[in-house]
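Project outcomes to date are best conveyed with an example. Our students and postdoctoral researchers have been running inverse folding experiments weekly, and each run begins with a structure described purely in tokens. The record below, which covers 290 residues, was selected by the lab manager from last quarter's runs and is presented without edits.
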């Protein structure tokens, strides 16, 4: 099969953050045939990511969705490393760490110093300005938003966000890469929450307000949206799946960036995050998990 235009030079991909998004992105990249370095600053998270990815690839092989050879090669192509410097050889680095502008900017500044001059720095941010992340580097033309949906191996969409200075060439390369991952691409201007979360998060926040003000039980709110509007998960169940900390961070970016009180996070969501009830990843959020 001919390589899509602009793909010739991408051979190695770095992924930073081995949480639910980074591990899924690393899996996609390895299965698509790239050499992948996955880095997480937390060695425990890195170990869990390696486990999750190899289990997931083996499941795809056992279901006949991947050949044994491709599965084994994909696992071999993936290197998990606690040293950020090992990503220096990557052609594209995809950042998927915590949703905090300050922490991401610090990382982008480090990456700018260690990555190859030609490397593209992409962020999987859900809401933060790509232009501002790019301002932490000396290569703003090579910084772009590549927003995967959760879970990355399953969801068919990637939202691409161009910063103020992202070049046409970098945009074309990242679009071709997303398509190589088998995804459909949509493009958003660099505004808070882009397209998907600008629309999704107010719905999730409203579901929290409905629960907070006693409109209905959590189960009836979720069943209402599942059976009433054919969503695969109800909004509260989806919030637990995304992570309540991630939802709260996105709503804060929407609230601050768009200056409208309609985005103000529901006090119940804030309280759950304060209590460490972050959703499925912590075993407790709106619901409790085994
Ligand atoms: N990784 C890989 N595969 C997974 C997976 C994961 N994390 N979770 C589920 N799957 C696979 C399962 O193996 C199964 O595959 P087969 O059918 O081949 O056996 C398939 O997906 C369906 O899984 P399940 O039967 O276990 O469960 P399900 O039918 O309920 O589907 C779901 C799970 C795909 C997550 C579905 O519930 C769903 O689509 N939920 C909504 C997800 C969503 O809206 N995501 C976007 C969130 S917003 C976002 O991501 C942006 C942001 O910035 C916050
Ligand atoms: P997560 O909490 O599951 O994982 C984040 C990982 O990043 C953790 O393992 C943590 O140890 C690591 N990390 C934090 N700071 C780091 C640093 N400085 N260097 C290296 N590793 C670091 O989070 P997630 O849900 O995977 O989200 C990651 C990013 O993806 C966020 O920007 C989020 O907004 C975005 N996103 C999340 C979803 C979702 O549904 N959860 C969907 C799309 C995009």
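After processing, the design step wrote out the following sequence:
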């Amino acid at each position: 099969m001919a390589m899509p235009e602009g793909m010739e030079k991408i051979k190695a991909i770095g992924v930073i953050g081995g949480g639910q998004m980074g591990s899924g992105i690393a899996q996609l990249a390895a299965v698509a045939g790239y050499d992948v370095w996955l880095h997480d600053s937390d060695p425990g998270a890195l170990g869990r990511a390696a486990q999750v990815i190899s289990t997931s690839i083996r499941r795809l092989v056992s279901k006949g969705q991947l050949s044994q050879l491709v599965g084994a090669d994909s696992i071999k192509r993936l290197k998990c490393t606690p040293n950020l410097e090992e990503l220096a050889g990557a052609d594209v680095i995809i950042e998927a760490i915590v949703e905090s502008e300050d922490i991401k900017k610090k990382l982008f500044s480090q990456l700018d110093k260690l990555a190859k001059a030609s490397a593209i720095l992409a962020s999987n941010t859900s809401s933060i300005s790509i232009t501002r992340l790019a301002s932490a580097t000396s290569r703003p033309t090579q910084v772009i938003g590549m927003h995967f949906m959760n879970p990355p191996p399953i969801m068919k969409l990637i939202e691409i966000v161009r910063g103020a200075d992202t070049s046409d060439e970098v945009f074309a390369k990242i679009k071709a890469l997303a398509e190589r991952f088998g995804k459909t691409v949509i493009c958003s201007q660099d505004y808070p929450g882009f397209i998907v979360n600008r629309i999704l998060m107010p719905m999730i926040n409203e579901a929290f307000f409905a629960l907070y003000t006693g409109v209905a039980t959590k189960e009836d709110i979720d069943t209402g949206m599942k059976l009433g509007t054919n969503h695969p998960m109800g909004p509260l169940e989806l919030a637990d799946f995304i992570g309540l900390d991630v939802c709260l961070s996105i709503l804060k970016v929407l609230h601050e960036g768009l200056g409208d009180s309609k985005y103000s996070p529901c006090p119940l969501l804030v309280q759950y995050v304060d209590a460490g009830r972050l959703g499925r990843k912590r075993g407790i959020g709106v619901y409790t998990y085994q």
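The CA atoms of residues 14 and 91 lie 8 Å apart. Strands lie at 12-16, 35-39, 78-81, 92-95, 120-123, 143-148, 157-162, 184-188. The training component of this project remains on track.
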